[in-house]
Amino acid sequence: MVRTTQHLLLAGVIPGIAFSAALALADGHGRMMGVDMMWGLGLLWLLLVVVLVLAAAALVKYLGSDRTK
């Protein structure tokens, strides 16, 4: 009896969690996150990486320069 109750509980809980996760990714109208938003987030991450690489290059150039003038 306990085993059957656990299976019934899991059968109700796991789909509920999956549905909640799906709603978290949906917008106000119930649509899933679109391709445009994924492209935008990808470009944002790419911009962040470029800025970090440029900042690291500037720091290396600054530390390697002769600052005793």
Could you explain the architecture of this structure?
By secondary structure, the chain is mostly helical. The chain folds into two domains: 1-33; 34-69. It is 78% helix and 0% strand. The chain is built from two helices and no strands. It has helices spanning 2-25, 35-64. The longest helix has 30 residues, at 35-64. It is rod-shaped and about 60 Å long. The mean pLDDT is 74.
Helix-strand category: mainly alpha
Estimate nothing, just give the exact number of structural domains. Answer: 2
Number of helices: 2
- Taking the alpha carbons of the first and last residues, their distance comes to 84 Å
Which H/E pattern describes the elements?
Answer: HH
Largest sheet: none
What fraction strand?
under 5%
Give the overall average pLDDT.
74
- The percent range for helix content is over 70%
- Sequence stretches where pLDDT stays below 50 over 5 or more residues: none
Shape: rod-shaped
Query: What's the total count of β strands?
Result: 0
